[in-house]
Amino acid sequence: MEFSEVSVITSLNKLSSLKSALSHIGVSGMTVVQAIGCGVQNGTQEYEPEKNPEMELLPKQIVIVLVDNEKVNDVVEVMKKELYTGHIGDGKIVIKPVSNIIRVRTGEEGEAALK
Question: What are residue 5's DSSP bridge partners?
Fold first, then answer.
């Protein structure tokens, strides 16, 4: 079985609904990292008329999910639906291939390490 890492960088206020929605489609784990950063708007707030000439780093979170490739599209669709506001800062989703997953405690690999 092949696996992917699906990560999303987004604002701080959507974690609860995203976690709930991912649980409902069978995602059994996630990692959340608090971060600061900015996208192409350089941290400009949506209501500000001009783009910041210098980057303004804003609070963000990175949500990381490991899933088998059959679930990637479902995970991405849930992320897009739950995080969409139509405003600057909704986020970026990144999908990376994963060659193997190993549970350190038991040595289980692949799908067994995700269950």
Answer: 66, 96
- How many residues does this entry show for the chain? 115
pLDDT tens digits for 98-115? 999 999 999 999 989 988
Which residue type is seen at 65? V
The CATH number that domain 3-114 falls under is 3.30.70.120
Provide the 3-class DSSP secondary structure of residue 74.
helix
Domain ranges across the chain: 3-114
Identify the H or E element spanning 31.
strand 31-37
pLDDT in tens, 13-38: 889 999 999 999 999 899 999 999 88
Query: If you ran DSSP here, which 8-state letter would residue 81 be given?
Result: H
- Contact assessment for residue 101 and residue 3, using Cβ atoms and an 8 Å cutoff: yes
b/e map 78-105, b = 16+ CB within 10 Å: bbeebbeeeebbbbebeeeeeeebeeee
